[in-house]
Each structure stands twice: as C-alpha cells, then as structure tokens.
Design goal:
This protein is an alpha/beta fold. It is built from 37 helices and 34 strands.
Length: about 1050
C-alpha cells in the first residue's frame, strides 16, 4: 500500500518526501509518537524517494484513464514534455515525445514474422512457486527462444534437470549458435557427471566447475537471459537444475525483469561475471580432456578414506594460488629469503610442498631441509610432500633416534639439528623450510638460521608478530608474502566460528601473581583445579544452550597443567562427556590412538596441555573449550586453528572461552585483534556495540560481565586518544624511546600516533619531552605528517631520507618526489615553487628528524612487493604504491591555470598533455555519495576490473573515444583505486596505483561500462576487499 492509498500514518520506518498533507498528518500524531525527519538540504541523494513518489502517482493516474487509451497516451506525452523542458539531455530529439498507439513486440530476421515471447511479462517482476498450472520449468523454457545468450549459476546439475531443457538448449546453442555459460560445483558429489558432460558438449557452451570437495560458497541458483534489446530477464531462488526443483518442489524463485529492476539485474550480471572471471575458484571444464574427465568423475564419487601409503594428487586451492604466485614473483625480484604469512589451517605445508615441487621441476633446487619442533608436524609434513611429489619414499626423518641414511631430503626437529652429533650439516641444502617461523628469534632457531645458506629460505607462519616483541626481519626481510590472515582466510579456507566469551561466576584471577606478561603457572593451576567443577558446569550449560547436537561433539579442551587437565577431564566425565587427557609428554602411540578415538566419536573431549597448539591437523574438531587463559596472541590463534580446518559434515567451529575474570594486566585486546584484525579504536567499538568487521558466517557473543571486563581492559591497555597517548609517552619507561621502539613496546597503532593533526614530535612536546623552539611553519608541517602514513615504496622513502639530510634533488624525477612530499607538508601552492618550499623545509629541523624516524617504520609497515615499473621516466610512481590526489598531481607535474598543483578525487583526469588518462576509483560508495557518482566499479579478478565512465559520456564524444580506443587516441589509461574515501577519522585514504590498463569489453553509454585488462595483477588484499561477491 503506497502513500496515496493509506488512511493513517502508522508507527514504523519510512523513506519518503514530506508533502503538505503528510506534514498535517504528522502534526496530528498521537502525543506518545514522534516523527524522525531528515533535512533535505543535508541529503545529496533524492533519487530514490522521488522516483518512488512519481512512479506511484503515475500508476494511480493511469488507472483513472484505463478505459481511455488516447487519454493515457496524451498524459504520458504531457509528462515527457515537462521532463524534456527540465532535462533536455535526457532525450535524443523531440520525436521521442510523440507516441503512437502501437507496441513494438520484436525485431526478427526475415522470413520470420513473429516470435514466441516469454511466458512472463517483460515489464513486471514476479514470484514463481511451482503452483498448479505454473511451474518454473515452463517459465524457463519460454525464455530461450528470445535470449541472445544465457548464463546459469547452479550449485549442482542433475541429468534429470538437463533433460527437461534438452530441446531448448540444443535450439539455443546449435540451431541459433548462441552462447551458454554454466557455473557449477562438485560439492557433496551432488552433480551428475553426465549432466556436466552434456552441457559442456554443446556447441557455443562453456562450463566452469568449482572442485572444492569440502565446502562451497556457491549456494545461489540463478538463470540470466540476456537480450541486447534491453529486455533481459533473470531468475533467482532455491531451485537447482534437477527434476523436482523445476517441476513440483516447494521452491520459491523470483523472476526479475530489466525494465522494472534494472539495478538488481545489473548486480546479478556483475556478480556472475565476477565468478566467471575467477579462474582460481572455477576451472574451465573440457569434456574432451581425459585428465579433466577423470578429475570430475573422481570429485563426484562417494568419499572413501585414503589408505595409509596411498598417494593422492595435490593441487593448489584457489586461495593458495595467489600466495604461490607472489612467492614466485618475489624470487623474480631477487628475494630468496621469504616469509609466507598464512593463517593456521590454510595449508602452509601444502603451499611449501607445491613451491618445492615447482622449483625442483625447473632444476632450481633439489636437496631439502624441513625444520619443525614436534614429531607429529614432521611426519605430517613428510606425508604432504610425498603426496605433492607423488613419490612414496620421499624424505627422511631426523628426531628421537631417527637418523637419515642419504640425507638429501630431511625433515628434522630443531633439537636434533642443535645436537652436537647431528648427522647432517644444515648449510648443505638447496632449500630450507622453517615451519612456525615465529620461533625464529629464539636462540636455537637463531643459531640454525645463522648456519644455513640455502638458495631458497622459506619461513611459514600464521602469526608473524612475536608476543615478546623480538623482531626476526633480518632473517626474513619485509615485505612478507601472502599475508593471508585469519580474518580474510575464513571465507576461502576455513569454517566460520561462533565465539562465546562466557561469565564464570565464582572464579576471579585478578589476585594471582603476574610476572613478565604471564601468570605464575603453579599458582594459576591451583586456582583452576579448585574451580574445575564451576568451569565444567558452565561449559556443559553453554554446550546444551548453543550446540544443536552435543552428541557429535569433537572437542579440544586447553588446560594449564596436567593436574588441571585431569581435574577437568574427571568433571567432564561426571557430566556425561567422554574425555581423556593428553600432554606434550604423552607417548606417541597414546596420542595417535586418542586422535583416532576422537575422530570416530569414542571420545568427545581431549583435555590437552602443551599439545595441539600448532602444526598438527585435527580437521574433525568442531568445538574448543578454553579452560585456561592464553596470554600469547600467537598461541591463542594456533589453538583456534586446531578447530577451524574444514572437514566433511562440519559447518562451523564453536568456541567457549571460560577463562573467568582476568588479572588487570591480561591483554584481551591482543587476542581479539589477532582474531579479528581490528585496530584498537575499532575493537573498542566492536566490543561495546557489537558492530564491526567479522568474517562471513562468524558470530561473537559476550556475556554481560565478560563484556564489561574486556571493555575495562581495552581502556587500560592501549590508549587511542591524545590525552592517553601523551601520558603513555611521558612514562619513564617510554620517555627515551624513539618512534619505532615506542610502537613496539606499547603496541600502539601507528594510525593513533598519526591521527588527524598529530605527530610523534607533537606528542612528545605535549608530554614536555621536547621543548626546543619551532620554526614558524613547523607546527603546521608536523601536524600534516599524519597524511604520509600510507607511503611504503622505496622511491619516496629513499628520497625522503636524502631530503631530511638536506640533499636537494638534482634531477627532475627526484624533484617531483620532493614536490609530492611538499604538497602534503605545505600545500599545493607552496609546493609548486621549488625555491620557496625548499627554503621553508631547510628551516624545519624537527620535520627532518621526524621523517628520519618515520621512514624505517613505514618500510616495515607498508613494504611493497611489486615488479619495477615506469610509465614514464620522469613520473616517480611505484606499482601498487598509495598516493593522495595532490601527490599524483605533483608526480605528473599537472598544474592548474594558477600554477598550483591540483587535487584529484574520483573520476577521470587527463594529464601530461593528454598522454595519460587517470582513472580514479573509490570502491565503497558511501550513503552521502551523489547518485550520478555511484558508478559500478569493482575488481573481477586480479587482472580484470569492471568500471563505468562518467554518467554523461557517450561512445562518440572525446572522452568516450579515449576510453574505448585509447591507443588510437594516443593515450594510456592508468588505474588508481582506493577502498573508501576515508582511511580513519579525518584522514583521506590514498589511491593505490595499479598500472596501465586496456579496454577488453564494453557496453552501453551514458555511462559506458568497460572491463579493463590490467597489465599487472592487483594485490590480493585489494581484490578481496573490492569484490562485490565474496
């Protein structure tokens, strides 16, 4: 019911313009009600409410003249004339306003004189529910005859469903020679191989398959029938391509038409294109390829357990391929000591094995040393390498009495290598892989890394930040490879989690001893053993409340000591849960048997101490009980990783954190930041209000007391406000620290030191630690330094160091780097005059000092791994570097008429005499973004970007020609992308430079939609963050 038909204004949510009548109705509201109004002067986007208002009014007016077609036509012409007078560019010419009493039904090739129209209206969307006399099958069949091309997105396809469309598919693909594209999966083995083969065998048909055997993110079912006439239709709903779904199943499907839902249909098309372009997730299937036929058949067979010793083929998963490609790129750039950062459960060992296989295949390496610190990790790693290489005898073990005889490919424990009688010399290996490389700064690992001189050194870790603050970047220089952290790995590789931070009344750890960042172990154990019944009672209550089937529980319970584990296990047994105790000292056979019993369900809970923190796969674990506080964020993530691995019939991990009221020094913030990837500021808002970034499918719940305790700790832990930071800087332990040491010691975010109008020097001055007088211009320049924290490329950082040492640039490229800096420090006008700006900079001793302190911090925080690239010898842009608008202007020496540098926002800028078109894109269009600037811009995959021109651009005008035919027009388009317009409060986000692009597909005009092909792959982080479909 619309606004014109309602009789009263009911309480609820609205989004409409206020008319005089509505204003009177609001004035007459019940005194207990209040109207929430928005001032239109502050709202830039009126399109939605206005279109809804006019559409409803026109529909009602046409009802009034429904029996008088001539009057209806006259009314439409009058309205069109008014619109043309107000918006003359909307219509091509005046003839568009003169309507004739006839409808265009089709344009067909002779000798045809008619066409079979779809069963549903081309104007109106509708719901289809397989009601009597109206099945989805009948609707879909009727669409093929008029479709120029067809796309199908379907989790699984059955032969019974394909057979229903056999005649239509053959007519579409064979007789009319039109394209068909199908995206499907092997999930659960539900598809029929014959159905996939039937579709792939059709002429003009292309099929792509996701072979992820454990879980799929593709649950959508959709058809899109494309028509160049502008009357496309689409179906989205619950129906797979099966007999029941198409005919008599209780299915709901919505039929969407381009005419009345253009934005919805456009989003469906764009999402399909994004899936189709993702060659990592969906692989093209060629039924003529024997290898692909075997792979499909194998993927669709019922799952069978692999017999010990039987080799299975290992290929990289879609999320692992970019990491391996980045590792290969690092080596091409001359980097041979690389740290691969990938969350626990993403298959770091698999990636290492595939990397070794590739290097070995080229002859780059042969001998291998794989180092870890536990027997289970080594045995598991050797199995993975054997599968990857398809060599059942590959690798020898060195630990606990196992000694290699050949010593060419060795899987060794760190203790065995450190032994005086070690039978091998670590320096003799071509390739060395260090598992869980966050141990690398420990003494025994440090000694090993000092001895090895391999051609390739690869470290593996999910948590590169050491809790003790010790850095090991001298072994593994930044930038690190992959950076696939837990929060962005879950959608690709892990199951989502439900995390419950529970109140445990009667347990208070605040009075326990705290030394060097840890509880005193025995004192903690005494407290926890005495409270075991309270903990277990709360755990079993939470289990009953939050887990649908506790009978299929496969859980790990992390405990403090053996005594604690035994107490917990006994209480779990008393509450009816089958449990056992394992420690790092348990015999290997006992550990092996316990794992089997847990997998088979004979045990429900393993209470563990110093075990299963890292490296060992336990994919069937579906719940974790944290019965002890884990001070280390690294260990905490490793514990979670034991349960986040995917497994058949496992949809999520449930975590019960029962660690009670903690000591005031306990750092909840470090654990939660490691889990969620939030800044301190974001984390506080997340805990307080429950709003924040969470991986898809994840849920976080705080009991009331636990929430209060965590918020109190967050306030104490690391300040984000200016007053708190000044106090922290002033503390005696921090007063003498430099910027880098301060950030490491305090865990303060760089973005909080450099919040709007802040800098390290200004904080120290506010703390009374820097009292030297400043030059007149220095306070503003120091306050502007917060706009430089995006920089990470060596070109700028190296030049900044020289500038801070008062080495004035001697060539034009270096001068442009100087101007880029000065646009930020002094503004676009001063920076445009080299002599004036340099004179001002020379006097700024404090700015020099702070730049010298900031440069190494930015090298560590923002290091870039990208091939060298120069679009022009004088333009100092680094591929994948981040740049503010004025920096880009200075890089191209692009000046306004008054000589000043310019600022760039979203849009297109022609620079260097028209030789380059800068395509400046902001991915997230905020609520305040004007409707005419809401372009559909997003990455399709790492080398393809979907983009729209300005709203008025036509194919034949100058801008249109430059977009569509840049080479002929003598210009090179360059793509700059940022995620959103603000990086943090008050700070503009910089654009990331993605390099030259070329048009590779286009459609429409006003705006023109173009798919750009990138010369260089974009960074994974930008790809994941920018996709409209995840």
């Amino acid at each position: 019911m619309g606004r014109w038909r309602r009789r009263t204004l009911e309480p609820g949510i609205y989004d409409e313009l206020v008319s005089a009548q509505v204003a009177r109705d609001l004035a007459a509201l019940d005194p207990t009600l209040v109207a929430v109004r928005r001032n239109l002067a502050d709202q830039e986007d009126l399109r939605g409410p206005l279109v809804a208002l006019l559409q409803e009014a026109l529909a009602l007016a046409l009802i009034e003249v429904r029996d008088k077609p001539a009057d209806a036509m006259a009314l439409a012409e009058e309205l069109l004339a008014v619109l043309r007078a107000r918006a003359p560019h909307t219509f091509r010419d005046a003839d568009d306003l003169t309507l004739r009493p006839e409808r265009l039904a089709a344009i067909v090739r002779k000798p045809a004189s008619d066409v079979d129209a779809p069963r549903g209206s081309l104007h109106t969307s509708q719901l289809i529910v397989n009601a009597t006399g109206e099945s989805l099958l009948d609707h879909l069949r009727s669409e093929f005859a008029t479709a120029d091309r067809v796309d199908l997105l379907c989790a699984f396809v059955k032969l019974s469903g394909v057979e229903k469309f056999r005649r239509e598919l053959e007519s579409h693909c064979v007789a009319r020679g039109r394209p068909l594209r199908v995206l499907t999966t092997t999930y659960m083995g539900a598809s029929d191989a014959k159905a996939v083969a039937r579709l792939a065998g059709l002429p003009n048909a292309s099929v792509k398959v996701s072979f992820d055997e454990q879980v799929t993110r593709l649950h959508a079912k959709a058809w899109v029938f494309h028509r160049a006439s502008g009357y496309s239709t689409a179906y989205v709903g619950s129906s797979n391509l099966s007999h029941a779904a198409q005919t008599d199943g209780l299915e709901w499907n919505v039929r969407v038409t381009e005419v009345d839902q253009p934005a919805v249909l456009a989003q469906m098309v764009e999402t399909f294109e994004q899936y189709w372009a993702d060659d990592h997730q969906f692989e093209r299937y060629d039924h003529a390829d024997e290898r692909q036929r075997r792979r499909l058949a194998r993927a669709l067979q019922p799952r069978v357990d692999v017999v010990d010793g039987e080799l299975v083929e290992i290929e990289p998963k879609d999320f692992q391929k970019p990491v391996l490609a980045e590792l290969a790129e690092a080596r091409r750039l001359g980097r041979h000591r690389n740290l691969v950062v990938a969350a626990t459960g993403t298959g770091k060992t698999v990636m290492a094995a595939l990397d070794y296989r590739a290097l070995r295949g080229t002859g780059a390496v042969d001998s291998l040393l794989f180092v870890a610190h536990r027997r289970e990790i080594l045995e598991q790693a050797r199995r993975v390498f054997r599968h990857a290489l398809q060599v059942p005898s590959f690798g020898e073990l060195l630990f606990d009495g196992h000694r290699p005889t050949v010593g060419r490919h060795v899987f060794a424990s760190i203790d065995s290598l450190a032994s005086a009688d070690a039978p091998i010399e670590p320096a003799m290996f071509d390739m060395v892989v260090i598992d869980e490389a966050h141990h690398a700064a420990a003494a025994s690992w440090e000694q090993l890394l000092a001895r090895v001189r391999p051609r390739e050194l690869v470290g593996l870790t999910g948590t590169p930040e050491r809790a003790d603050g010790v850095d090991y970047a001298h072994h593994f220089p930044r930038p690190w490879v992959g950076n696939l952290r837990l929060w962005n790995a879950i959608p690709h590789a892990l199951v989502p989690f439900r995390y419950y931070l529970l109140d445990v009344e009667g347990v208070d750890l605040r009075g326990l001893s705290w030394r060097a960042g840890h509880y005193a172990t025995e004192e903690l154990a005494d407290k926890l053993v005495g409270a075991a019944e309270i903990f277990v009672r709360r755990a079993t209550h939470a289990l009953a409340e939050h887990v649908a089937r506790p009978d299929v529980l496969r859980a790990l319970a992390f405990c403090a000591t053996v005594r604690h584990a035994e107490a917990v296990s006994a209480r779990l047994a008393a509450h009816g849960l089958r449990s056992a105790v394992l420690t790092g000292e348990s015999p290997a056979e006992l550990r092996r048997r316990a794992r089997i019993e847990l997998d088979q369900g004979h045990l429900q809970v393993l209470c563990v101490v110093d075990l299963y923190n890292e490296g060992v796969d336990l994919p069937n674990v579906n719940a974790l009980f944290l019965f002890r506080p884990t001070e280390s964020a690294t260990v905490f993530l490793q514990q979670l990783g034991r349960g986040l691995r995917r497994a058949p019939d496992k949809s999520e991990l449930v975590v019960f954190d029962l660690t009670g009221r903690q000591h005031l020094s306990f750092r909840f913030d470090q654990r939660l930041r490691a889990l969620l990837g939030h800044t301190h500021r974001e984390l506080h808002a997340f805990v307080k209000d429950g709003f924040g970034r969470l991986p898809a499918g994840c849920h976080f719940h705080f009991d009331e007391m636990a929430q209060r305790d965590v918020l109190d700790q967050l306030k104490r832990a690391v300040p984000t406000d200016k007053r708190g930071l000044v106090a922290l800087v002033r503390e005696p332990a921090h007063a003498a620290l430099g910027l880098a040491e301060f950030l490491t010691e305090t865990d303060v975010d760089l973005g909080d030191v450099y919040a709007k109008d802040r800098s390290w020097t200004l904080l120290r001055r506010d703390a009374g630690l820097d009292v030297d007088p400043l030059d007149d211009d220095e306070p503003d320049a120091l306050a502007a330094l917060h706009r430089l924290t995006h920089v990470g490329d060596a070109t700028r950082l190296d030049e900044w160091q020289r500038l801070a040492q008062l080495q004035r640039p001697q060539d034009e490229r270096a001068r442009r780097v100087m101007r880029m800096l000065f646009t930020v420090l002094y503004g676009k006008a001063v920076a445009a005059d080299d002599d004036v700006a340099w004179e001002r900079f020379v006097r700024a001793a404090k700015v020099h000092a702070e730049l010298l302190a900031l440069v190494p911090v930015l090298r560590a925080h923002n290091a870039i791994l990208a091939p060298p690239h120069a679009v022009d010898p004088l333009v100092p842009l680094a591929l994948h570097g981040r740049y503010l608008g004025p920096e880009i202007s200075a890089a191209f020496d692009d000046r306004a008429a008054n000589g000043r540098f310019r600022d760039y926002y979203t849009g297109v800028e022609a620079v260097a005499g028209g030789r380059f078109d800068l395509l400046l894109v902001t991915l997230e269009k905020g609520a305040a973004t004007k409707e005419h600037l809401r372009y559909r811009d997003f990455p399709l995959h790492e080398r393809r970007f979907h983009w729209q021109s300005k709203a008025r651009t036509q194919r034949t005008d100058r801008e249109g020609r430059r977009h569509l035919h840049p080479q002929a027009e003598g210009c090179t388009p360059l793509l700059f992308v940022r995620e959103r317009d603000r990086d943090r409060p008050g700070v503009t986000m910089a654009f990331r430079y993605l390099g030259p692009v070329a048009p590779d597909g286009d459609s429409g005009e006003r705006p023109i939609t173009i798919e750009w092909s990138l010369r260089y792959p974009m960074p994974c982080s930008l790809l994941d963050g920018g996709r409209i479909a995840s």
